[in-house]
Each structure stands twice: as C-alpha cells, then as structure tokens.
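Hi team,

As requested, here is the filled-out complex form for the zinc ion run. I kept the field names the same as last time so the parser does not choke. Let me know if anything looks off before we queue the next batch.

— J.
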Amino acid sequence: MLGPDQYMLGCVKGAAVDFVITGGRVTVPDRVLDDGWVAIAGGVIAEVGTGAPPEGRQVDVDGALVVPGFVDTHCHGGGGGSFSSGDPDELAHAVRAHRRHGTTTMLASLVSDPIHALCDQMSALKELVEDGEIAGIHLEGPFISKARCGAHDPAALLEPDTATINALLGHARGAIRMVTLAPELLGGVKAVRQLSESGVIAAIGHTDGVEEQILPAIDAGASVATHLFNGMRPLHHREPGPIGTLLDDERITVELICDLVHVHPTVLRLAARHAGHGRTVLITDAMSATDAADGSYRLGTLEVDVTEGVATLAETGSLAGSTLTMDAAFRNLVRGAKLDILDAVRATSAKPAELLGVADRTGSLRAGLAADLVVLDAELRPAKVLRQGKWVAEVGTATLRT
Ligand SMILES: [Zn+2]
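And here is what came back:
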C-alpha cells in the first residue's frame, strides 16, 4: 500500500505556504485523492498531497470535489456583456460572470463582422490580454460558409486571403490564438497553412465541406473542430462530411457544446468516447445572456431572443450560441452524458490548457502551476473559485439583468 508521501506531486522548494485547502477530494491528472490537500504559496500551487497537510492556515472544504480551474476556448460573453461590444464595462462583466462559475482561463470569441469592426473589437480586447484577464482572442469567422453560418451575419462573410489575414494578425499583435474557418472556401486551405505557420490555431467550423475538402486542411495544420455537430454539414453514413472526418482524425481536438441542447446526450457521449480524453474539449460558446436574465440580446449585429436560457435568432429561430457556463458543462458531461469525473476534468481544464499552449501554467492541480481551482459541492456546483491564489467573489451567484 502506498504511504502519504507517495502521493506527493512535487513541491515548490522554499515557498512559504499562504494557506492549505484541506479535506477535499482532490483531482490530480490520473486519480482522485480522498482526504487530499492543496498548499498555495504566492499565487501558485506549492504542493498537492493526501493525509496530514503541511503547516499553514487551513481552509477545510469538508469532502468537496476540488478540480482545476476551467479553461474555456470558445466564449462570446456573459453577465449581459458581449466580447464584440468594444465596451470595457461589458467586457469586464463577461469575464466576471464566467469566473464566478469557475472559468479561470478563457479566450474571447468574436463572431463575423467587417474587418474594420473586428479590428476595433480586438483593440478593446488586447488590453484584457495584456492584463492577463483573458488568454487571447478567437475569431469565429468571417471566413465561414454561408450555408452553415448559423448565428453569423451572412453579409459579413468573406473568402480568406493572405493580405486580410495578415492585416488581422498584425492588428492583434499576437492576441489572436484561434481562427475558425471553412476550408472549402476559395483560399481556405492556404489560409489554414498561413495561420498555423503564424502560431495561430486553425479550427474547422461553420463548414459545408466534404471529406475531400476537410482532409487537406488537416494536412495543412488545422487542429480543432469548432463545436462539432453545430454549424456543419450533418453526418451521413455514405458521406462522412466534417463530422465524421474531424471526429475520426487523431490530429483533431474536438470542441463540444455540452448544454444538452446543442447536442443530444447520447451523441455527446458517442463523440466524447470516440475522441477520448486526449481530444475532447468542452466549451460554452456562451453569449451575453449567460448568467443573466431571459430577454432580447444581440450577437454581433443580429438580434437574439433568450427564453428559459435557450438563445435563438429572432429572425430565423436558429440556435444562437448558448447560455452555458463551464460548471454546467462539467455537470452535464457527468450527469447527462454519464461520463467519468476525471474525463470531465480533463475536457474542461487539462486538455483545453494544452490546446492553448498554457499547460505549463494552468489546467492541472500540480506543484508549480497557477493556483487556479474550483471547489465543487455535492451537486457539482461551484462553492469556491480560486484564481492565481485569490478567491473569486460572489461565486455561483447570477447577475440579475432585464
Ligand atoms: Zn461561437
């Protein structure tokens, strides 16, 4: 039998411990440590273990599940604020809303808009990137298929070209981490190559492409399927389309909107099991009405109605992003799709952190990484959220907004 010391996952030498979270079921990469503890020093995880905790102020979490802070790679807003707004107050509302639900690292996603408008929106977001409030920008479009544009304004869609992509990347000065595009568009595969050679994640989404059009994009460096199933040609047993091609390719990380509305629980389970914990990432694709009241909102330039938390375009009734938060996605994967807790942990933290290239800083509970974690109660709802060693205020409370 292993003694307590054998559960130690390394420690940061010489750091004075600020406090120790004790009495938790602590999720480490390959197991759950019962009666586990996490020692925090200077905003960083100093040590993780089980049994007798080290000296220091103790925060007893009374048997709660302790998971890494959530990492959301696809999110448009929340708390009444949209990342497309360019308004500093709205941006702050959006970040805070998701933080209260356990998201400690996130990309800000922008829907399709004219290039000059995207540049203005990115100017506002760049400050949040520089301040470390968000991990970067995700451009969802405008290089996507008119046939599968979902809640994107068809008037804003473009075919990709080298100069336009250079202009966007130049304006963002390294803040763009991911671009979603449809590879079947003229110049699509070339754009994938340009993005991946520039260190930007090329994601395939909002696409009507067939396998013969998707595979060259993967060969050119595309590595992500943007919300698999949603905004793409459906799966057919004689024509795998983007869904079959992306899900079956080991080079592709698969994003799933796990609100049990965008994808049926059985289909979620099917996809998450096939992609496995090495390739599955849960996202929110949340829009501004997330963690806010039902009512009328905007997604980019389009009007959206939110009824009982389901967001649809006012004009067409098409699903228009979600009102999901990462804690709910986590619960849905465990309770709705009946997947293992550790699979849900990987899909909401370690894997997306790896995708963003920040796994050496966050995404797991191990010594040396940022003290980003969520304490989940018996209902898997966040009771406490810690970001870079500081407790997040008003955890789990909703913004009431009409
Ligand atoms: Zn989106």
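Two things worth flagging: The radius of gyration is 21 Å. The chain has a mean pLDDT of 92.

Thanks,
J.
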